[in-house]
Structures are given as C-alpha cells and as structure tokens.
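Limitations

Structures in this collection are predictions, not experimental determinations, and the ligand pose is part of the prediction. Treat each record accordingly. The example that follows, with iron/sulfur cluster as the small molecule, is included so readers can see exactly what is and is not provided: the inputs are given verbatim, and the output is the predicted complex.
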Amino acid sequence: MPHLWMFLLQSLTPAGHEVVLIDGNAQPMDEAGIARYVLEQKIDLVGIGAMTRMIAKAYRMADAVRAVGVPVVMGGPHVTEMADEALGRDGGARHADAVALGEADETWPKIVADAARGELKDIYAPVDASGKELKPSLKQYPVIPWDTIDLKQFNLVPKSAKRWLQKIGEGWGTFRIVPVESGRGCPYGCEFCTVTGFFGDSIRFRTNESVVNELLLLKARARKERGQIAVFFIDDNFAINLKRTKSLLRDIIAAGAQVNWVAQISANLLRDQELVDLISASGGKWVFIGMESIDPANLKDVNKGFNKPEEYAAVLQRLAQRNVYAITSFIFGMDNDTVGAAERTLAQVRTWPPGLPIFGLLTPLPGTPLYKRLDVAGRLTRPKHWQEFIPFAMAHTPLKMTIEEAHAEVNYGWSHAYGAEAIAQAVDSLDDQALGYRVNILIARLCFRGIYFPMLGRFAWWKVISENRQTIFKLARQGVEAWWGSRIGPDAAPETSAGD
Ligand code: B12
Ligand code: SF4
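Predicted complex:
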C-alpha cells in the first residue's frame, strides 16, 4: 500500500510544477540509482518522508541526492521529533537541506515556492504569526485526482497475469489498496504511540461529502481499468466519534460508494452493534484492532487501560457474525510480560473467530512518553536504534524477561499462528462460510506471514505454497466442484457453497 502523504502533497503543490512519485517499497532504488534518476529527470527538489524504522535508509538516499547537487526536504514523524539529526545539528552529518515539521499541508506550498526561488529555509513549522501551532482543518480537503494519477507502481496483480485476470468477473487486472483518511488525531495518548503527540488530541474530520466523492472516484477508476480497489481508512481510530462515523457510513451506503475497506478501530468502540452493522453494510471487511496485550497490568502500564481483554472475544464474534474479520495486533516485551506470554496469548486467539494476529515488540519511538520513561530509567540499550535498524529487535530491557526471551516470544507467536497447521485450522473453522471467505482468509494469512518471515523471492513463495498445499488443494477442489455443480444444475451440485 502506498503512503498517503505523497499523493496529498502532490495535490497541494502549486500550479506550474511537475511532481513525480517514487515509493521505495514498490520501486526500490539504491543510492546510485536514485542519484542517476534525479539527474536524468532533471529534478529540482526531492522530498523524502519516512517512519523511524526507515530513516537510516532515507538518510542514505538523501545523502546520495544531495551529493549530486539537488536539495532535499524531509518530513514525517521521525524528522519532526529529530529535526536536529536530519539537519546535522546534533554533531552528525547533515542529511536534509530543509525539514518540514508536523503536518505539512499548509507549509508544503511555501516550501515549493522557496525552493523555486533558491531560498529554502532549514525548518518549516506549521505555526501562525505569533508562533502558535496550527493544525490544518480538514474541512477544505484537496481533491486527490485518483482517476488520473499514475498508479502503475502500486498494482498488486503480477504483470504476467494481468490480461487474463482482467476477464474474470468484474475484472481483476489490477488490485490496489489505496490509503484514504477521513480524520486525524487521537486523544487516547497510549504511551508508545506517536500519534497523540504528532497530530494532537483534537480530532479533525473531513466532510462526509468529500470522503464519499473520493470513494466514488476510486470506484470509477477500478471499473474503467477492469480491476479492483480496496481502501485502507488510515485514521488512527476510525470510530473515535461514533456519531460522525455512523453518519459517514450511512452516506457511503446512500451514495452507492461502497468499496471493500479496512480500518483501525479500538476494541472499546466496537461494542456498538449499530456501528458494526454499518461497517459491514458499507463494505468493511477487516478491522485492525490494537489489542496489544491480554494482560490488564500491561495495558495499564502503557496507558491503554481502556482496552478490556475480557471483552475481546465478544467484539470479534460480533464482527465475524457480519463477515468482518480482525487484524489483532499484540506487543510483547511489555513490563509485566514473562516467558510464555506468546503461548498464553495464542491460547486465547485460538478461541476467537479466525483473523490475522500480528506480533511486535514494545519499541521506544522518539518523542513518545515511553521513550522518555525508559530514558530516564536508564533502560534504553540502543537509544538511537533507528540508526542501525534491526527488524523485530528490542531497544530496551524488559522488566521480567531478557531481551532474547522477548525475541523468542515474538518468534513463537509468528511460528505458531502462521504454521501450515494453524492456517489449515483457521480455514477449516470457516467451513460453514462461502468458499470466497475461506480463500480470503488463506490468502491473507499467507501474505501476513511475510511480515515476519521474509517472503521476497520466488523460492520463498514456492516453499510456503508447498507447506500449505493440503489447504490450497482442498479449497481448489471445492471451487472446481462448485463450478462444475453450477454448470450441470442445482440437483447435482455438491454441498459446498461457492463464492461470496
Ligand atoms: C497507514 C499506516 C501504516 C501502514 C503503512 C502502509 C505503507 N505504505 O507502508 C501499515 C499499516 C502497513 C503500517 C505499518 C507500520 N506502522 Co504505521 N501508520 C500508518 C498511519 C496509521 C497512517 C499514515 C498516514 O498516511 N497518515 C496521514 C498522513 C497525512 O500523515 P503523515 O504520513 O504523517 O504525513 C503528513 C506529515 O507527516 C508530512 N509529511 C510526511 N512525509 C513527508 C515528506 C515530505 C517531503 C514533507 C514535506 C512532508 C511530509 O506531511 C503530511 C501531510 O501533513 C500512521 C499514523 C498516522 N496517523 O499518521 C502510522 C504510523 C506512521 N505507523 C507507525 C508504525 C510504528 C508502524 C509499524 C512500525 C508498526 C509495527 N510495529 O509494525 C509498521 C511498519 C511498517 C513498515 N514495514 O514500514 C508509527 C510511526 C512512528 C514513527 N516514529 O516512525 C505511526 C505514526 C503510528 C503510531 N502509532 O505511532 N502503518
Ligand atoms: S488509540 Fe491508537 S492511535 Fe490512539 S493513542 Fe492509542 S495507539 Fe495511538
């Protein structure tokens, strides 16, 4: 999935400038490659955005671009907290000519104008004349021209299959997951999270009309290219204001703007039955829930006591009854975690409707209250962990286990939730559901497995397919039987249900 900021800033670029978008995940380039590209395309200004975990690579790319004489401006959550690092004011090398702090919706046009005049400043902060921080209102949200933007780099359908898949049903020649925001900000202030500090605790929303129009534009594009589009509502807590979310979902339904969508919603807000009905009716397929831990003491420690583990099962049942499934996210290495945390968590997960559990480690991101607490307590083992990024590695010592034990818990979680046996069980537990749902869960599990186990490269995929061959053959056989049954008439159809 591409990041929203680049499409947003492209739409906010003053007229008279051409903007080229490169996503480092979809179109990887090395330092020499990016420098060559920037020179060949005669690019005058390069903007780079990155989360903390990607910042070391982002700095390397920025250095390569600056080395061929092209100015670089950096933005996003990491450099907002660590502007001195990006500007070389902390004793290290300078990586950026300018840094955009915080939300750049209103500063970006100024940055472009200054760059065009050759007068880039070091820091662009979203403040008014008196220096007071300004949070952009989302009421005047720009139209992102999804109908014309070049999205070639974001097609998840392999090129070789595109033509053939275009002919299936409504068309599967393209499959894109597109980020859409309907609001910003979260007041909850969980200790490990960047969001409350970055976007603030006052929540701002776009108008329903502007969101609905964006969905209609996306739908029209998918239809035109005989492909599929799914939307990721990237709001940190999509249902933070229940009344407003329900009204948005009702408007989506009324306008026929339903697309398949996924959103992040905290478990406490999913108690509302009507909300869950509307999620399902408006195209909601997956909900990402930051469960974090099944231990209330851990949740209290990180200021997330509003999560109530005892109600997780009911929330997931309510979603599953409407064919909405959950991506359930857990963090290990929390202060009250002891050895066995992963198995205790999985024991609960196995009793829930099948979903997509994911496991991470408590990570002190710069600028968060967690970072400050661990720093003061002298518990940071790698205070600048982002300078040498290691996936799934802790940067501080947990209280009741060692770092290695915490790593082992994460490994246990992924190995046991995404082994062939666990995947088969998840698919089998949906035996009463349409074949489409079971295929969905299988594909989603195989893809999510790749978050932890490297799946880049053809052989990695063959290995996974071979390990899961029994489940794959079983579903394929049921699909063929159902297809055959539908051809020879209802009397002869086998008992399996096909498609959703
Ligand atoms: C969508 C999303 C994802 C998607 C990412 C999809 C993708 N393409 O990679 C998914 C779900 C996969 C994801 C995963 C993760 N995410 Co995430 N994610 C988000 C989320 C919810 C929305 C991002 C977004 O679009 N925001 C809206 C836009 C408008 O805001 P923005 O990106 O900040 O951009 C604005 C400014 O920052 C600025 N800006 C940004 N870039 C640039 C560049 C330039 C040049 C300029 C001028 C300005 C500028 O201008 C923009 C407009 O104002 C944010 C939270 C949030 N609300 O931002 C977390 C967030 C970015 N994620 C975060 C984290 C930690 C992760 C994970 C590491 C979680 C984990 N433990 O696994 C993973 C890492 C994934 C990976 N491998 O890289 C943290 C990052 C904190 C940090 N300091 O780095 C955030 C802030 C959430 C949090 N709880 O703290 N994430
Ligand atoms: S509810 Fe989610 S977005 Fe809000 S502060 Fe907590 S983790 Fe961050």
